[in-house]
């Protein structure tokens, strides 16, 4: 590869500035190279004094895919903008040799980018599955929106490549190499950039210099600053500090904006709009932020509410802004810790409580002494190992079914008591049991109501028994849940608690006339990545060449589809562009069928709600007070194959 500055590429970049002003893909992306650099770690690149502003070579390429093995001992950066073709969930992959990273921003601002996947060693070109870190989680993007994307690679010796792939709506199942049709290059700064303090930084003072880099065409800058994101983002008059030619401003100092000082414990937001020479053309900047630490102690470790903490753990915290000493209060009673006074001064930001009991909740508070004043801290808590844990529904869960089954992981106890109710201060004893029976059914609950529960354990062989459990809560849904796919597990059928998804949703296994198969061959049997909400959805493969592909759930609860005036059945579904183009159908009680309006529903790549007026079933003779089964599947048109995902089957009342 030729090692000279690509002036032609730079010239093309300048010519492209205006072509990309509207935020449209241009068909290429910027590649930059730094040569004569040893090592295989990305940090060897980012720590080089020439990085990031002085590459040895720059060029535009038509995809996010490098040539194979061009050189040794160099680093590479690929950067530009990504334009998703449609709204939906996308996955990303990276492959390369040696270490590689792929970064993506939540918008067009590079300072908001975060690492989404990486190659921690090396891979062959387009080898996507060598390391689990090569694949991102699902990332929801907006069609046509401009996102900053960046790839980094450090090559030592031997083979070397860098490739980014993706999959999602319109693109199809990934990994597909990101093509220039969805890219435009980094063209230099068209807006203010390089905020100082950095976006999200913590400033250890009550004043700050605020500095930025100007955009390419800026001759002056409109400055907005305040403690409310929405006001700064909207350019509210109260946040406008004026127009200036300088690229810095002081805040929180006498004679400057906020002369009384910035307030500890407050997050401040700021925005710089660049103004061109005509005085009217403006480039709206991104909203950045920084915070002033509170005067009270913060960042407790263990974190507030932590569970399963080692009983020999030491406590630590971040000292309050300007604090000199600390007063530490510790105990197993919230009120006593909250009201305690008279602790001895404590100089460090750590505390050794000594060896603690198992399965015990402890409370602690750190007051910050500032000389003239002492600031009382919050009361934090943690629970040591051996306590009841893993509540289901999860603590704080919302949209929970009105007929839940409460489960938990046992602690040290041989027996337990279940306390439950809608008033956290007066829970009632509702049940008891022995080790091995960690479940409780509270019965039919009210809609849209918060409930509280606690599991107390006892063990006569343990001197520290009994143990009072943590207080948990959940809120029921304001709709009726037919199946949210969350209750299914991978337990062996011989286990009384077994609830495999394909034993509830009966598919075509063993039936030569039904081409559907629910779940996967190996655990986890439910889908746990492609989900609409919660942690699971139902995967269903189909082969309509045999005649039909459908799965049926026999209802054992929530059979009255008139309760609370519900009038709409909603089924969330998602398909794939690789699927045969089929529509979908749903059948109640084995005979009343409704087809989806979209003949290509099976190819929809993003989660989509299918809303069905219940009168369409009632008109076919279904008794909505006694619905005993629901069947879903693709309506065979092509006789093709594919994979569907279903989630969150619900009944909704009329909108208020």
Summarize the structure in words.
The protein has 656 residues and is mainly beta. It folds into five domains: 179 residues, Sandwich (Jelly Rolls); 99 residues, Immunoglobulins (Immunoglobulin-like, Sandwich); 87 residues, Immunoglobulin-like, CATH 2.60.40; 84 residues, Immunoglobulin-like (Sandwich); 170 residues, Galactose-binding domain-like (Jelly Rolls, Sandwich). It contains six helices and 48 strands. The strands form ten sheets. Strands 1, 2, 3, 5, 6, 8 and 11 form a seven-stranded antiparallel sheet that branches. Strands 13, 15, 16, 18, 19 and 20 form a six-stranded mixed sheet that branches. Strands 22, 24, 25, 27, 28 and 29 form a six-stranded mixed sheet that branches. A hairpin with a 4-residue loop joins strand 27 and strand 28. It starts with 6 loop residues before the first helix and ends with a strand. The N terminus is likely disordered.
Please tell me the total number of domains: 5
Shape: globular
Write the CATH fold name of the largest domain: Jelly Rolls
Query: What's the β-strand tally?
Result: 48
CATH class category of the largest domain:
Mainly Beta
Distance between the ends = 67 Å
Q: Could you report the average pLDDT, rounded to the nearest whole number?
A: 93
Structural class: mainly beta
Per CATH, which architecture of the largest domain? Sandwich
Q: Beta-strand percentage?
A: 35-45%
What does the radius of gyration come to? 30 Å
- State the major sheet: 7 strands, antiparallel
Helix share of residues? under 10%
Give start-end ranges of low-pLDDT stretches. Answer: 1-22
- Number of H/I helices: 6
